[in-house]
């Protein structure tokens, strides 16, 4: 945590009516998630919680006000991290790696697609969704495939645990199957 984080944490805790400890946990989780997603546990959000752009889940799952509070806090922190990256804001040496170097060292998808809105993995299958360039990239045991998502705004993913390890996605139009998306080259 840098010296500037203390001011940010205090300011956001007051703005969103949560404890400074909750802001600190969310900030650390968002840094780990490259500024795009977070998974953490804190009592201020009802326990286990997750966030990514357009999706908030809190431990108290039917509490829509708490979901909105988490979304607002995470959106503010993500914007702060984006600003820090744009300004070349490397974090101090120590336990935390800079946001810029952390995301760049873990990029497994082809260059030129932009920043993913969602990234996930399970077993030997991983995916990244790029809404700006309308692309979905899947790495299946080292084989990279790129798909055109067209007008789909993907916001959910499910992976079957059977032998075929099928990925399906959810968009504003419902279920999106990989087989229904056109494959594109790099």
| Largest β sheet strand count, sense and barrel closure | 5 strands, antiparallel
Task: State which percent range the strand residues make up.
Answer: 25-35%
Write the element-wise H/E pattern from the N-terminal end onward.
HHEEEHHEEEEEEEE
Derived from helix and strand composition plus strand pairing, the structural class reads alpha+beta
The count of β-strands is 11
What's the average pLDDT? 80
Total domain count = 2
Quick description:
The protein has helices spanning 3-16, 20-32, 64-86, 99-105, and strands at residues 37-42, 47-52, 55-57, 118-122, 125-130, 135-140, 143-148, 156-159, 167-171, 174-177, 183-184. It has 186 residues and is α+β, with helices and mostly antiparallel strands.
Element layout with pairings:
Blueprint: H1 3-16, H2 20-32, E1 37-42, E2 47-52, E3 55-57, H3 64-86, H4 99-105, E4 118-122, E5 125-130, E6 135-140, E7 143-148, E8 156-159, E9 167-171, E10 174-177, E11 183-184
Antiparallel strand pairs: 1-2, 2-3, 4-5, 5-6, 6-7, 7-11, 8-9, 9-10
Helix pairs in contact: 1-2, 2-3
